[in-house]
Amino acid sequence: MEAVTQQIVVKESGARMWGGRFDGKISQLMEKFGDSIAFDQRLYSEDLEGSGAYAKSITRIGLLTRKECRNILDGLDRIAEEWSNKTFVLKPGDEDIHTANERRLTELIGPAAKKLHTGRSRNDQVATDLRMWLKKAIIQNKAHLFEFLDVIVERAEKESDVLLPGYTHLQRAQPVRWSHWLLSYGWKIKRDIERLSELFVRADQLPLGSGALAGNPFAVDRDFLAKELDFSSVSPNSMDAVNDRDFVLEYLSWASITAIHFSQLAEDLILYSSEEFDFVEISDAFSTGSSLMPQKKNPDSLELIRSKTGRIFGHYAALMTSMKGLPSTYNRDLQEDKEALFDVYDTLTLSLPIASGVLSSLKIHRTKMEGALTEDMLSTDLAYYLVRKGVPFRKAHTIVGACVLMAKTKRVSLSKLKLSDLKSLSPLFDHDVESVWNYQNSVEQYSSTGGTSSKSVQTQIDQLNKWIIMHR
Questions:
Q1: Catalytic: 169?
Q2: Are residues 381 and 356 in the same domain?
């Protein structure tokens, strides 16, 4: 096979902010390979805000005059308007959001713009931009999670008297309340919100003023910068500050855990909505059909939530792999953090409201749910009946296992076994065994904290409502 030769086109590198050291040329292929403006331009607002704060800070120490600072701030405002209005024009040499903004600022105000980067590096600049952006993203994610939690609690209150089979190993296990199932996801989402709040605290540390790696040589007041940019603290070590992407990895880890919870919810509802279960019906607004089979109503919304979990995992694994072998401080490998971070955020920003819409509009089929309850699911209750008469649980388990086998052999349900049959397995069985064959009695016995009794479920609802009010 004939080899394919890649033609390398080169051009002068002098337009680059780092071009002074080079008298050679940069390959257009390398330029395309290294430029990040295509995706990091979404940091334009944070980058401009950070530059404004930095201009003020170096004015305070005499590196800029007040007039120069005013011109810079006015220029930054104009650039922000251009980005917002989609009139900002990218030009060759705009390799990232920092160089694009600086180039445009120079065009607008002239030489004063070239003073802005004094003591500052793109290393501490991008770390600052990312943290500012992530803090906003966290606030948005939390809002979506609280909306979903509201739906769970509201439905749990309204539908607290509905029973359905609980499953282990996808086998019918014990009767539970529908509200108990809903709340099981409520507590997961509460933990997701708590983890996100903890992440915000760690992300809320300002790297700006760390320079490339050694710090800032002009005694810039970093506490002033932190106040201007709404950070609660400053990074204590400049080398760590420009290298650290723990906050990105932690966000991707959080997103992976959260996505698992929504994927599990989606799987439950996909099963429950199938004709074999028919416990729930997904709204037309969140379903699609088949191009071939007219009768189909497919739970595509839930299937996509489930599948996008793998996409989130992939970004997390990819960035961890990129980070694991990096030496100290900044390396260009860190450019890979943004596409992973942005795509995971975008994925969740779509998925979380979809999940809220699916659950809030979901129709439950109470008759089908309660009709799926079978007496063999009360086998454990039969064992508890014997325990309450003094039989050790392991022995009671064995006796009831024999009862189940006898019922299957006779091809009758457990409740249809004669009292004489039961007594043949244990003399402690008596007429009061009839109380076991009641699904409401079954769920009501689980009244300890966290159980599926009406009292316990109401306690969970009250606890979550109180927590939502305190932490929203």
A1: yes
A2: no
Q: Which of 169, 420, 431, 448 is catalytic?
A: 169
Task: Decide if 27 is inside a domain.
Answer: no
Each residue's pLDDT tens digit, 72-85: 999 999 999 999 99
Q: pLDDT tens digits for 160-188?
A: 999 999 999 999 999 999 999 999 999 99
In the residue annotation, 290 being an active-site residue is answered as yes
Q: Residue by residue, what is the 3-state secondary structure of the chain?
A: CCCCCCCCCEEECCCCCCHHHCCCEEEHHHHHHHCCHHHHHHHHHHHHHHHHHHHHHHHHCCCCCHHHHHHHHHHHHHHHHHHHCCCCCCCCCCCCHHHHHHHHHHHHHHHHHHHCCCCCCHHHHHHHHHHHHHHHHHHHHHHHHHHHHHHHHHHHHHCCCCEEEEEECCEEEEEEEHHHHHHHHHHHHHHHHHHHHHHHHHHCEECCCCCCCCCCCCCCCHHHHHHHCCCCEECCCHHHHHHCCHHHHHHHHHHHHHHHHHHHHHHHHHHHHCCCCCCEECCHHHCECCCCCCCCCECHHHHHHHHHHHHHHHHHHHHHHHHCCCCCCCCHHHHHHHHHHHHHHHHHHHHHHHHHHHHHHCEECHHHHHHCCCHHHHHHHHHHHHHCCCCCHHHHHHHHHHHHHHHHHHCCCHHHCCHHHHHHHCCCCCHHHHHHCCHHHHHHCCCCCCCCCHHHHHHHHHHHHHHHHHHC
Do residues 92 and 154 both lie within one domain? Answer: no
Per residue in 43-83, pLDDT (tens digit) is: 999 999 999 999 999 999 999 999 999 999 999 999 999 99
For residues 126 and 102, state if they share a domain: no
Q: Identify the domain boundary among 66, 98, 115.
A: 115
Q: Which domain holds residue 61?
A: 32-115
Among 330, 352, 371, identify where a domain stops. 371
> Domain with 70 in it: what CATH number?
1.10.275.10
Residue 454 resides in a domain: no
What CATH number is given to the structural domain containing 417? 1.10.40.30
Out of 197, 233, 274, 290, pick the active-site residue: 290
Q: Does 413 lie in the same domain as 321? A: no
